[in-house]
Amino acid sequence: MGFFDMLLSKLVIKAAERASGEYLEKQNQKKTAPPTVQQSVPYPPPTKQKEKVNEIPDGKYRDRNDIEEFEIPKGCTRIGKNAFKDCKCLTKIQFPSSLKEIDNSAFGGCASLREVMIPESVTKLGDWVFSDCSALEKAYIPDSLNGSQIGYGLFSNCTALEDVRFPKRLTGEFFNVLKSCELLTSFEIPAGVTKIGSFAFEDCTMLKSVIIPDTVKVIEHRAFSDCTALKEIYLPDSVKIIDAFDTFRGCTALEKLRLPIGVTFRKKFDDDVGIGTCFWECDSLKTVVLGERSFELKGTLDLNTLSYMYARLAVEGDMRVSSYVQSNIRDILQALILKEDADTVRELLSILPEEAFSKEDVLEAADSAGMMGVTEVYDVIYAYAVRRGIHIPE
Fold first, then answer.
1. Distance, C-alpha 217 to centroid of its chain
2. 38 falls within a domain
3. Is pTM, for the whole model, over 0.85?
4. What digits encode the pLDDT tens for the residues 288-312?
């Protein structure tokens, strides 16, 4: 390389180095230069609007044990099935005035929930909504449910519940509503209820009194079983059917019972016992009022005892029992034979028309009295058979 070529190369390198230094200096100046006005005022983030909640979906918070208090959003109209089921740590729930419906088992198993105040806006409660809320002490059901059908098992197994307020009027069944509410001491069933369903008050061991409205027609099995503090119960004339098995079983403190005339004890399947186990273990029962007639009870209330009461009312001239006695004449005669009450048998045979006693009824009664050795009753029936021209085999 010649002299001029070397000189030219050095000049190019120096120019490149100078240009590079100037470039880096400018870049550093840009980094340290104060921002322009436009750069120092960033755009504000967009405002986040609250999402409207029309309902709490089915199972939304189920099994969430991190929730202690919860406020249902305003505008919500429905709480879905199992929405808060088994939220074991939930102690407080606040409902909005927009709420219309609480669906099945929405708060079932919320074992720490202590108080429920349902707003007046609610018009529908599903099944088992607050079942197994074992810490629940106080509950308010609004008058907006007047005349409505409430769900099955509403407060079932709420063992701490002692203060509960229902609307004055409901309709349909009262099924399993307060089962095992062990601290409940008294209750008035709302007017309009037509059926006290199975297990309605079963195991309410502190229940001392219950008022039944004259709209109730049916009382199903185990409705009052093991209500061990219940001392007296008045069944109005509207009650037409009582299940014959376990309905009042285990009411060990029950002392007085009022039954309507003509009430039917519905048998269990092919059970021929009649009353069956309806009043088993009611060992304190001493007084039974049938209609307006009071009977002192010695022993248990069974079919024979009840039949004897009807026989006494018939011979005392209570015309309201005539139809029942004629329809159940074999049970009536059998009860009188067991009581060895020849006088009542004689009176009954004299006041009832002949068509009330079929030939088979007379023969069966005579055979039963003869086999049991109740000779006075047998003689009365035998004499009646002779007058009727009915032959009784020796």
1. 17
2. no
3. no
4. 999 999 999 988 899 999 999 999 9
